[in-house]
Amino acid sequence: MSIDWKSYDPTPFYDELIQSRGKPRPVAKKLTDYLSSLDDQELQTRKQAADHAILEMGISFTVYSEGENIDRAWPFDIIPRVIPKREWQTVEKGLVQRLTALNLFIDDVYNDQKIFRDKILPKYVLNNSKNFREQCRGIHPPHGVWAHICGSDLVRDGDGTLFVLEDNLRVPSGVSYMLENRQVTKRVFPEVFENSSILPVDEYPTQLFDMLASISPRPQDFPEVVVLTPGIFNSAYFEHSFLAQRMGAELVEGADLVVGDDDCVYMRTIQGLERVDVIYRRIDDEFMDPEAFNAESMLGVPGLMRAWRNGKVGIANAPGSGVADDKVIYAYVPDMIKYYLDQDPIIPNVPTYLCVNEKEREYVLEHLDELVVKPANESGGYGMLVGPHATKKQRAEFAQLIKKDPRNYIAQPTLSLSVAPTLCEEGLEPRHLDLRPFVLQGVRTDVTAGGLTRVAMRKGSLVVNSSQGGGSKDTWIVDEEA
Amino acid sequence: MLSRVAERLYWLARYIERAENTARMVMSFNLVSLDMPKTVKLSWKGLVAVTGTDDIFDEHYQRDDERNCVKFLLADHYNPSSVFSSLKSARENVRTTRDLVPSEAWEIVNELYLFARDNMDAGIGKRGRYQFLSEIVQRCQTLTGLLAGCMSHDPAYDFIRLGRNLERADMTSRQIDVGAIRFLKKASDDPSPYDGLLWTSILRSQSGFQMYRQHVKRRINGADVVRFLLQDIPFPRAVAHALRYVQEALERLPRNEVPLRLVMQARRHALGADVDQLISEDRLHDFLDSLQQDIAEIHDAIVDTWFSLEKAA
Fold this sequence. Notes:
A: alpha+beta, Dna Ligase, domain 1, four-stranded antiparallel beta sheet, 30% helix, globular, B: 15 helices
């Protein structure tokens, strides 16, 4: 028996591949036709081939709560998610616009603070911001860029509109899975690649390296670029090591680096101390430099902030970039785009209620059963409330939390996230998903062709985070005209 | 190459070699103990003493009987040199340097660690001991073979060879010490015919029995075995051989002056020893001690030169 698209029913959700029962979207037609040509056994064989490839490549994702188990196979669904190139070109423009505005904002925050004086944003958001770093005031990083690597989460709602759900400007992860998913899919469905025009994604490590090289304090042909990891116990260690290898950069830990009396950063090698030009850091601000931030940090490099402030080393993302990661600030991004660029936002925000404003808070408290409530400064899907799925007790607890610290909470309507066919034990089933494209900004700005599609593998679940049982899919940007 | 990475590879090799040699030591001592008559007392505690961990042993045990000693040497996590501790440390080191070694290396070490952990009771008990220990030795050899045969002979591999051979030189000198204990005991009324058994077992523990037979061509006697294990150049587990390979690995590394000078001194020290005289003057143990001191100094120099770099000069 082969896949029968007539028996696959995504209603009431927007499906990425299927327009309505039995009718694929034009952009996905080649894929769905191909899938229908495979019988169940063949499909299972492909799935096993994918599992095997993943094991072989050693893709893993650590989950903190699993203690000693460092490796866990990263759940991967072999059915790709498809987006037309025409639509993607608009998304790309929107992402570039957004990151440009965000970087202008961060630079403004740490320097002139015009946006507050002009009353576009209330000043209180800074005073209570977890990720605002006083130590970064007055610094001008190269090209005026603070957040060099941004992973914005996009979601599609019931009528097919794409929204930005959040911006990740600290240390967004997942790009290695995007790259490996493509490798796996090419092995599993080579026939489809031959017959359609799917934009490649493999450029990313090169673009990342070029971007990092562009912030080197010493203009030269071979800047020494390193990836700074907290170490093997970090959940994204696989990615740190993967990116370092792909860029041909050294993967270092805090203890490998030392700041000299000349304020330059050196790494300890068997040849002696070697100067480091650019650090792609994958550790949080607070742990970067015990001299400047958390004195207890064992992961950091004493003096790193000093080196950066004096322009002796490039750091991506710049310390303090996380200030714009705040979900309260997120609500103001459309205003920022207007203010700094005098443009209308190309990709809309999800409507957001700020609990700090009395009227909005009242609304949120009255409609907890309809809304998703999120803490302003968490990532990874931790500490949030999905109103419609929560118990009365949970909602009451959240109401208390909100009243106690309204600045730290925002609420959004529960979106009916789009779905895509996913190979589950029961066969092909609709599962909710989102999309994390990666944007690189240095001298120029590059956007990945697609990004990482994360899928909630559990039926009905809206939580796609890998730390909470999510999986991923390959994402195809398909040029229908080619 | 990063200093930290070099250090981890060096320790990976040392720990694997240590686990293998400790297993070999217990295995041969175990065999010889079965041959000895009741009247000859073999001290298992002596075996603990040659690994230099008797202080830790005394902290944890009242009785130095066979079971306690074997458990201490094989399984105890508070003995940093026990087979289990060594394998655990080896695993940590390879886990954090997986990118630099063939991927099978991680699998071998990980499975070896799990094997040891899950079968430790068999190793401590008498019946399964031999099988357990030979499996450990074999798997360690598999790793050594894999690295020699499948890893580029680059600086990363030089640090592995450095660690392996330095540890081997140290452990072989300790093996000789096991026999040296017997020389000291000679003063008492132990029947000497059994000395041959002990020396044979020490040779066997280094898989050196056949090699000794072929190269020395004399009946097994203490002085010849000591000379063989200490000064033979062709035999890979002999101290002089291992030190030569330490030197060879050192020669390929940058900024090697201090450790290189020290290893050449240690080689002269080992090769220049007059074994007969050391035995007749009861100084063999002291000599081995000073040789182990040389090896510790080479280690310190390696650490200073490559692993613990401080601020820019």
